[in-house]
Design brief:
The chain is α/β, with parallel strands linked by helices. The strands form four sheets. The chain has a six-stranded parallel sheet, sandwiched between helices. A two-stranded parallel ribbon has the order 6-9.
Length: 283
């Protein structure tokens, strides 16, 4: 029997990490690592023995772990000492061991890494610099959405759906005019596996990949889609807009590089992805 490739997923209980673990486990041996599983799996701890044990024996690393959440979470925490300290420790410890054991890896960055008014963006930019030096591949996520377990950190689509379910209303943080590129998590997982499988080939051509749809939707439109879907179930929802403009990106709109489209394209449209989340939360 062919020996399964050992894949270490840092942040294996997160939104993307949990979906990726499930997606890959049929064809690979998954090494799970997330503080949610055990305090021994805390990447902030220097010389973490549990981490060293797994990174030594793995064949590939997905560096997805980060102290992060949706807009509500970032707005509340990204300008705090704890947020900065948590992520700096994670960055230092992970890259130190990737360097020491010379592992192939993907670093999960963000399209906000060029937004130096955001501490989250700055931290991701620091991670990108480490990745450049160590020869890994940088994947810039835009707005990946899917099933979320830690609802304190929920992102906009899940947040709107759960607000609508619980309160029969959606309270928006902004006026909703900002546009975002939304990628369903299953498409994200397919893209990550493809990049891992073609690691050497892709790395010869680029070190940066935008994993995105290159289609943009206003946040207000997302709320209206969800309102319509609830109405189909005979549940009336009200939408309340704020008078604030784009809080997170301050109106800055990046354009995704379409390099990955040579190898991969999204299969889920926004409507189908939202339907799956609504079904999961039994609405």
């Amino acid at each position: 029997m062919k020996k399964l490739k050992k894949i270490l997923i840092l942040g294996s209980s997160g939104q993307i990490g949990s979906a990726l673990s499930e997606f890959l486990k049929k064809n690979y041996q998954i090494l799970y690592f997330d503080i949610v599983n055990s305090n021994k799996q805390d990447l902030r701890i220097s010389n973490n023995k549990s981490f060293k044990k797994l990174i030594k024996k793995c064949d590939f690393v997905f560096f997805l772990a980060f102290d992060v959440g949706g807009s509500r979470y970032l707005q509340k925490y990204q300008d705090t000492f704890c947020f900065l300290d948590n992520n700096i420790k994670i960055i230092n410890n992970v890259f130190e061991n990737i360097s020491k054991y010379k592992k192939k890896f993907i670093f999960a960055s963000s399209q906000m890494s060029n937004m130096n008014f955001s501490n989250y963006g700055i931290l991701k930019a620091i991670g990108e610099k480490y990745t450049e030096v160590l020869g890994g591949i940088i994947i810039k996520f835009w707005n990946v959405y899917g099933i979320e377990k830690d609802l304190k950190k929920s992102h906009v689509i899940t947040d709107f759906i759960l607000q609508a379910k619980k309160n029969k209303k959606i309270n928006m943080l902004t006026n909703g005019k900002e546009r975002r590129d939304f990628l369903y998590v299953d498409d994200c997982c397919r893209g990550l596996e493809l990049i891992m499988k073609n690691y050497k080939k892709i790395k010869k051509k680029t070190q940066y990949i935008d994993l995105a749809t290159s289609k943009y939707k206003k946040i207000l439109s997302i709320a209206q889609i969800i309102k319509k879907k609830f109405l189909e179930k005979k549940i009336k929802i009200k939408i309340f807009k704020s008078n604030k403009s784009d809080i997170m990106q301050k109106g800055k709109l990046n354009i995704a590089n379409k390099f990955i489209f040579k190898y991969w394209k999204p299969q889920f449209n926004l409507n189908d992805g939202i339907n799956k989340i609504i079904e999961y939360y039994k609405i």
